Amino acid sequence: MDVCQSRKDNRTTPCRMTTPWTLEGYRGLPVLVVEDNPINIKMIRTQLKQLGIDMIHTAANGDEAVQLVRQNHYGLILMDCQMPVMDGYSATALIRAFEGQETHTPIVAVTAHALPGDREKCLEAGMDDYISKPVRLQRLLEALQCWLSPQQNIDAAVEESSAAQEPPEGETASTPQQGLTAPEALTAREPAHAAPPVDFGVIQGLLGVTLEELPLFSHLFVLFFTESGEKMEKIRLALEAKDVGQVCALSHALKSASGNVGALGLSRLCREMEMLSRSGAMDGLAQLYEQAEKEYERVKEALEQFL
Fold this sequence. Notes:
Strand content: 5-15%
InterPro entries: CheY-like_superfamily, HPT_dom_sf, Sig_transdc_His_kin_Hpt_dom, Sig_transdc_resp-reg_receiver
Pfam families: Hpt, Response_reg
Number of helices: 11
Organism: Heliomicrobium undosum
Main location: membrane
Radius of gyration: 19 Å
Structural class: alpha/beta
Distance between the termini: 42 Å
Largest sheet: 5 strands, parallel
Membrane topology: Multi-pass membrane protein
């Protein structure tokens, strides 16, 4: 049986891996989502509502999260790690200091890094668990079942698990390439255009829906086009200004958003831009951006059928 370990009392408790919850079932404390990317916020709110969580608060950065925790009680906090103003690590430290020994709100890191050692870094910062983006519906369900207080849990629905609709493990945009330097990453995989621009199986796994039901979530695709179009233009301007820091931040955000709509090729190219710009190198970035532009157009064409 899978287990989760609470940092409050160092006890190990079993995770309740059962079946999806009813939409009407949960009557516990709100869930706080701390995330600066509008597409990611929209996606995780949609997922939470599908799992029966209707009381959802959001914060765009760590500072806002700390203020909300001081004003409200939460059953769970889903914490992004890389945000402007205040990151998730600092926010977690302040929340733990505020809570002291009296309370312990479970904090689950939700991050696009997914690199070796990231989970340990999150736990050392005071978080309780770690899940990587894009977040599959079944993995989110497991985190909720594991970390929400038993007093807040609800009746399970007698229906098949949405895990059957998940893509195989390791086929998401957040899968790390271990041991690669930035230049090596540029040639480690086949070009993005060798695969379909959108893996609809990934979207189905993220949302727990059938292909026929995807038009019901067209608002997610509309938001993706709006946000990603702006980020692509900002990356172009940052490249002209030779601002590698801005290229890195924008590529990181677009990588995560692309994964959430199953655009794995675009997400991979953004990841490579992020890695290369993080090393401080400009060489190769323009070429990657040109590839990303072409892949972005393919993604738009593939998703437009659901608008």
